[in-house]
Structure formats: C-alpha cells, structure tokens
Amino acid sequence: MNILSIAGSDPSGGAGIQADLKAIAANGGYGMAVITALTAQNTRGVSGVQAIDGDFVTAQLETLSADVRIDAVKIGMLANQEIIGAVAAWLDTVNAPVVLDPVMVATSGDALLEDAAALHPLLARATVITPNTAELGALLGEAAAQDWELVLEQARRLASAHDVLVLAKGGHLAGAQCPDALVSAAGVLAEFSSPRLATKNTHGTGCTLSSALATRFAATGDWATALEQAKGYMLRAIGAADELQVGSGHGPVHHFVDFFGAADPMAAWWEDIAPLRAGIDELEFIVQLADGSLEREKFEYYLAQDALYLQRYAQVLAQASALAPELDSQRFWAKGAGEILEGELQLHRSHLVEGLANPSATTLNYVNHLSSCNSSYPELIAAILPCYWLYQDIGKRLAAANYEGHPYGDWLQTYASEEFDESTAQAIGMVRAAWKLADPAQRERMRQAFLRSSEHELAFFAQAHAESVEFSTA
Ligand SMILES: Nc1ncnc2c1ncn2[C@@H]1O[C@H](COP(=O)(O)OP(=O)(O)OP(=O)(O)O)[C@@H](O)[C@H]1O
Ligand SMILES: Cc1ncc(COP(=O)(O)O)c(N)n1
C-alpha cells in the first residue's frame, strides 16, 4: 500500500513528515512524502518555519501522482493559505481516501498554521478529519470542549457541516481514559478508549495516529477496524516512548516498538521457570502419562481435580475479560472461558466414571492464588498465563509420545493442537502488552503472579502421586 504524507518537516524526528513515514512503515505501508514546510524544531518547541512555495508543493504532488498509485493520503501541517490552495486543487485530480490532521499548534504551543478558517476549502475534500479538542473548537469558531460529551457533539456538527467523518480525540481532556471516536453527521460510528499513560513523551501523537489510520484504512477498507488497529499501535508506541532518550522536552513516541522495543520480558519469565519446567518433565505423573503406564485411578484423580480447577479457571478468565482495557483482549478472555466450559470440561467429564470429587488443598491453593490477583488486570492475566503456556509446552512432548491405542491418547492430543498454539501465543501477547504499559512495581507483581502460578502447576501435576513439592522460584 502506497501512502502519501503531505506535511511539514520536524528535524527532531518525532512529528511531521518524519513521524508519518515511521508510522506508515511500522503499520505495513510504503511511505512517501511531499514537504510543505521546514521547521526549526526540537522537543522543546519550534523556533522557525519556512514554508515551501505553493507552486513547488504542486510540482511535488503532480510529479508524484503522474507516476505512482496512491492508496491513501495523510495531510498534516500546511502552514499557509497558498499551500492549502495548492493541495486542495491537486486533491481534485486524485481519487484516494484522505485523512486530514488539521495541524494548527504544536504540543509545545507554537503556531503551525496562520488561520484555522483557511482550512475550510480542504475539509470537504477529506474523508476523515482528526482534530484535537483545540483544533475542533477552532474549526467551528468555538472554544475547545472540556468534556467528552461536548467533544462528540462538536464533532457531529463539524461532520455535518462539511460532509466528512470526524475522528474526535480525547487525548487532551482530563481523566484516566483517552477515548477516540469516529463521528459522522448521524452520530458516533465507533469508539475506542485506552488508559491514559503517564509520560510527557507525546510529541507527534497526532501525526502518528493519523498516519497509522490512513495506512490501516488502505489495508482494511474499514474505518472502524483501521481506528481500532491504529489506536492499539498508538498505545504501544506511547507505552514505549520512555525507552527512547530524545531531547529534554516532550520526546517522541517509539514508532518501531513492535520491532525494536525493549528485550522481550516474556522470554525472561520463561527462562526464570526453566528449572521448574524441568521439574515437571521429571514428575512420575508426567513420565507415566507419556508412556501410558499411569494407573487409571491416578489419572482420574488428576482429571477430577483438573475439572474442579477448570471450572474456577473459566470464572477467572471471565473476570479477566471483565477487566480487559480494550475489545480484543475482552473478546479473547471471554472466548477462552467459553471454550473451557464447552470443550475441555466435557473431555474431562467423559473420562470420569463418577461425579466430581472435592477440591484438594493443592487445587484450592492454586485457585485461591488466581483469585487473589483478580482485582488487577495485568496481574490476573500474568497469573493465568502458565496454565496456557506450560500445557502447550508439555502438550508438545506428550503428543510426541502418543501411540496407537494409548490409554490417554485423546487427552495427550488436546494440548498439541494448532488452535491451542494460537491461543497461547495470543495470551502471551496480551500479557506482554499489559507489561509494557505497567510501571516497574506492577511489572514485578506481574512476574511474581506468573512465577507463583507456575509453581502451582508443578504441585498440581504432582498431587496424584502425593509427591512432596519443595521447589520454589522465589
Ligand atoms: N498520555 C496518553 N496516553 C495514552 N494515549 C494518549 C496519551 N496522549 C495522547 N494519547 C492518544 O494519542 C492520540 C493523539 O491524540 P491527541 O488528542 O493528543 O492528538 P493531537 O493533539 O493531535 O496530538 P499532539 O498532542 O501530538 O498534537 C489519541 O489517540 C490519544 O488518545
Ligand atoms: C512539522 C510538524 N508537523 C506537525 C506537528 C504537530 O505535532 P505535535 O502537535 O505532536 O507536536 C509538529 N510539531 N511539527
């Protein structure tokens, strides 16, 4: 997908053309750039602007579109009326979706456009306009809204006046959430909210979001999907902004967080439990389960405990869904809960001759640990993770040991499916995403929750043989 940014240059690389090209590439597009203005700028502010001649902006645009197919256009800083006229005239000659970020003022407070009203001829030519609250007010000739209801109301009026979609952004409001909504003349089409991250490094968020949105729309053809994806990317990029050390003012977001973010914490956690994983492999229960020599009575004891555990585990997944900060993870954990109740539990019950036993102390310890994490989403999903990850890992080896006529063959197969691999990868991804947004103390609590659950897994596998478990990763 070829995405064109028409915008100003920010030498500090956090906003403008430089941010756009990074965000386009990070979202899978091929970025192109027509420069409207040079700025002398750093993370503390703008000290000078030199606009490009309107004729030369036209020359750049026409030369480009004479040769290259353009799948989406993102427009940023336009500096003055002459450039706005040049871009408006060129837009009449192309047929591509246009995301217009009506850049007027930098995060630092410096003016980047002479007059808000000058943008009016461009508004009807855009497909989506992405004003922040100040820009939204200025485009309507009103004061900036201070609450979300009024932002949505203003966005609806702007959409109606110019027959465009408006992306209303709540990043500048007070509150723990940063809501964004796609608004048409008819009202809100889609709304996505994310937690507000505590960082001063938000230089270029508007440029980055609008470029990601244009790129994701070119790829998906659906604005709501594009916004959901762009917003998720934005949150990850802001979440990793403090990893970069650029300037002393409002630093940039980490555009390539998905490629070069900090060393993967999940790999470190997995290493932390390496001795424990080896311990599970050596348990009599696992060895005998693999070779088929496990007494049925012991298998049934394990299954009965596991059925009791899974019932509670499904409730814990449902709680994770209830706490999830956005739609994808909300859906994922709810689906996991549903699959356990409809699938795994059935399998267990099909092996059990009699009704369910009482939970053992080992089982209770494990579910109590899960419950103790259930007021914090990041800790809860960290505690949930070992049940996915360890089973997927052991499942691979057990499936390899399976043979025709194995007494527990169907059970050995359950945790070695591609679907289970996929769910495990997603669960790891969700914990990783939550970790990136967490502060250091919370990250450590997440790690502890993960380690404790891993220990409970070991004890759980050991309980049918009543082996004493002295292992601790603490
Ligand atoms: N501290 C934050 N935590 C999470 N998301 C944020 C934060 N600040 C901004 N965002 C998000 O970044 C995106 C850009 O929003 P914002 O309202 O800041 O736009 P903008 O004002 O055009 O950007 P800029 O401040 O760079 O000019 C929005 O999705 C917003 O929710
Ligand atoms: C060249 C240029 N374009 C746009 C912005 C606005 O970005 P932000 O409001 O995030 O500073 C900027 N600072 N510089």
CATH topology of the largest domain: UDP-N-acetylmuramoyl-L-alanine:D-glutamate ligase
Shape descriptor: elongated
Question: SS-based structural class?
Answer: alpha/beta
Q: What would you say the CATH architecture of the largest domain is?
A: 3-Layer(aba) Sandwich
Query: CATH top level of the largest domain?
Result: Alpha Beta
Distance between the termini: 49 Å
**Helical residue percent?**
55-70%
The CATH superfamily of the largest domain is Ribokinase
Side-by-side strand order of the widest sheet: 3-2-1-4-5-6-7-8-9
Count the strands? Answer: 9
- % residues in beta strands: 5-15%
Low-pLDDT runs of 5+ residues are 467-474
Q: N-to-C SSE series?
A: EHEEHEHEHEHHEEEHHHHHHHHHHHHH
> Mean pLDDT across all residues, rounded?
91
Which hetero compounds are present in the coordinates?
adenosine-5'-triphosphate, (4-amino-2-methylpyrimidin-5-yl)methyl dihydrogen phosphate
Largest sheet: 9 strands, mixed
Number of domains: 2
Radius of gyration: 27 Å
How many helix segments? 19
